[in-house]
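Bumping with the actual sequence this time:
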Amino acid sequence: MAVNKKLDTLELGEQAFSTQSHQFWTLQIAGWLGYAIIVFLAIVRPQIHQETFNLSGQLLNLVIETLSGFILSYLQWLLIQKIVHLPFNRTLFYSFLSAATLGVIFNIIKLSAYKIIIYQQRWNETWDMLEFGGWLLFSLSTMFVWTSIFFVMLYNTKLQKEHEMLLRAQTATKEAQLQMLRYQLNPHFMFNTMNAISTLIYKNENEKANEMLDKLCGFFRYSLDKNDKSKTTLRKELELLELYLSIEKVRFGNRLTININICDEVMNGQVPCMFLQPLVENSIKYAIELRKKGGIISIEAANVNNKLLLKVIDNGQDLNENVRSGFGIGMSNTKARLDAMFNSDYSVTIDENFNHGTTVSITIPFETKNHSR
């Protein structure tokens, strides 16, 4: 599990770096081409008709200016990548300090190239503070703009990566929670069944005990096959439920009657694995086990307004309110699983009419394996 988490983190980092690198080079190339075009249109083009105008020299100077800016902004990008993990205030200070330094270097390169190419002078000849300061303002602004853009790119990528990691952590937490709840259901059912087998052996009803043990093995073999899945079809869930009921029928015989009323339309609907078993187990516990005459449990399912409505109905009307008020671990686990899988997009209602039994109604989104609605 730890290895998988590390691999996921590395995968996220590589994806983020690849996307970020592509964005940087696209922006870098487009940005400096745009810079060159703007400088040409604003400064070079208006001078074309002058007698002393040197077009080839101006274009060469523009190329050198653009390439030097391209290289310096790339160096700024590398620096910010190295310090972006520092505290924000320190990152901000170092970034704009380096931007100011690179802006001065950019300004010196521009002014020196202009002197050498256009006027055929030495790179530092006849400089004055007014000229240098006028050029410096534009050079600094250029580097500060690029630094601000890099900040936005890096922190946006960082936030996206943290958000993706948070979503994966939440998903892993939900999966672990669902698995824990499923593991809690199996021992609960196993305890009840083993207790019944023990009772049958004590009564010397060895054939029934052996039959129940065989069916219990079949039930757990089937449930283990589905143990790696959080959802299954309603049809498969009913097959698992029939295995469970076959065990309970050994215990209760004619005292337990099951009616299943489910239309074919919803048989391929997706439901949580081992979803119906704890609900039916509750009904058996409260409507069958405590009544000498036994009772009837009905299971219904239908598609109502693109929602899967499931009902487990029993006729345990002879029981008093104190007995029926608990519903125990099965119901609490069912609610916890629904909450983990569907957030708030589900409903659970328990209609306890002590003259006519209890109806548990559960509504979840109607989904099929290849299509959800």
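The tokens above came from a reply further down the thread. Residues 307 and 366 are 5 Å apart (CA to CA).
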